[in-house]
Amino acid sequence: KIPSTALSASPLATQVAATFDQLGLSFDDRLGSDLTVFSPIDGSQLAALRMDTPGDVDAMVANARTAFAAWKLVPAPHRGELVRRYGAQVREHKEALSLLLSIENGKILTEARGEVQEVIDICEYAVGLSRQLFGLTIASERPEHRLTEYWHPMGVLGLISAFNFPAAVWAWGTTVALVCGDSAIWKPSEKTPLTALAFAGLLAKAADDYDLAPNHLVQVAIGDARCGTAIADHPDVAIVSATGSVRMGQDVAVRVAGRFGRSVLELGGNNAAIIAPSADLDLALRGAVFAATGTCGQRCTSLRRLIVHHSIRDAFVQRLTATFATLRIGSPLDDATHVGPLIDQIAFDGMQRALEQARREGGTVHGGERLDLTGAADGYYVRPAIVEMPQQSAIVCEETFAPILYVMGYGTLDEAIALQNGVSQGLSSSIFTNDVREAERFQSAQGSDCGIVNVNIGTSGAEIGGAFGGEKVTGGGRVSGSDSWKNYMRRATATVNYSASLPLAQGVKFDL
Ligand code: UN1
């Protein structure tokens, strides 16, 4: 058998082909010349693919509508059975999937394994949920009447995801939507289509083997922004879930709102940690370093701003810079590596531009330079940067998707909270303190205005059990656990009169 990527000679391309073989999948039917896929590890070519067009998306939506009509009639626990089988497949192939993810996205293997684990975990969560799609029974104001809320399948889910979590974010939405009775179309990032084809391919195979699953239950659109627009505009896509930049989210939100569709948005973050004088500084240091440099600063939840009490600021920054200097930067496939490459040159250029602007705004930059690694001339490896800022200037208020940590000082907790909340994004936040009053205030209505509020933990690495998302320009959507499943269903409020008379609500009299 000729491996799918025979045309590309790089060792990583060969590994990708071997991984697809191991998964029993192939992307031969996707080969083409529209989209070249590179590994950020060394810039080598992994594959060249054909892209779907907006017309292809229309055809997918039509298929997804048909699939939905059948799937919504399958009892929810039986829908859960499909997700259970899929989760078992992902668990069985965890190592191969992690390797593929690491090769295509560049995150270090332990984080790639963590992401695949998130997929496994959300599958198990969704299976349990398939028996817990509860509605309420509400006390009626009328005698012998009953008010009940039903949750019904909603329709077609269109899911647009980013390169940085190329599997987990899709799985959060899709597995939960599937148990809710929806069908799904996925437009992954053009930077990580192979990971998408692998994860969706295993799901498609599980669906093929499951007699209750209709054809086209889950489809993948490999394409550029035009495919995303086609999904956002299509009147038959009931729910559009989008993760990515604020600019993309704004476009999607307006399009979806214009046709009264439902959107679920998880957009930019500009996450801060407050380091209080009472904090366990060893813990704070470890928490800050992982949150700021994990996934090479390319998580939505990455720590971008550190707000440190004046009394400990200099000492803490010294420890931080010393620790940053010891980070091992290199191939994500090497177990000793802490920080892998940036996704591409565009990300690198954006990082350098941000550092220049920070300097102009009075910042002192430590690190941030490109590292030349043997055998990886076309990989963009950088030393994560710490930037001491005199105040929260314009560049600090922006999300730069790279490992840059801005450090600022504060005097009172009110000041720190004002800085933390003083940006347009509202995804994740944290405080390191051993003062229970500070910790409680930070979580209260006077505290952080973010969707994620952590105490003595960094800003990243949320568990799947909670609702994930944030406020303000982060978009307001919530995905993953808690009651996020309600996004994928529609609510029907039913009133039943089991009396022999017809009392009207609000005591209205209408005698005939
Ligand atoms: C994202 O970066 O879009 O909380 C998702 C975290 C991960 C998910 C991040 N569980 O960092």
Q: Any key phrases for this structure?
A:
single chain; 512 residues; alpha/beta; seven-stranded mixed sheet; 38% helix; binds 2-aminohexanedioic acid
Describe this structure in words.
The chain is α/β, with parallel strands linked by helices. Helix content is 38%, strand content 21%. The chain has 14 helices and 23 strands. The protein has helices at 11-23, 54-71, 76-92, 94-105, 109-129, 168-179, 193-208, 225-233, 246-258, 281-293, 310-326, 345-360, 413-421, 436-443, and strands at 31-38, 45-49, 137-138, 145-153, 156-160, 183-187, 218-220, 237-243, 262-266, 271-275, 303-309, 364-366, 370-371, 381-382, 385-388, 404-410, 425-426, 428-432, 452-455, 467-468, 471-472, 479-480, 489-497. The strands form 7 sheets. The protein has a 7-stranded mixed beta sheet with strand order 12-15-16-11-10-18-19, sandwiched between helices. Strand 3 (137-138) and strand 4 (145-153) form a beta hairpin. The radius of gyration is 24 Å and the shape is globular. Bound molecules: 2-aminohexanedioic acid.
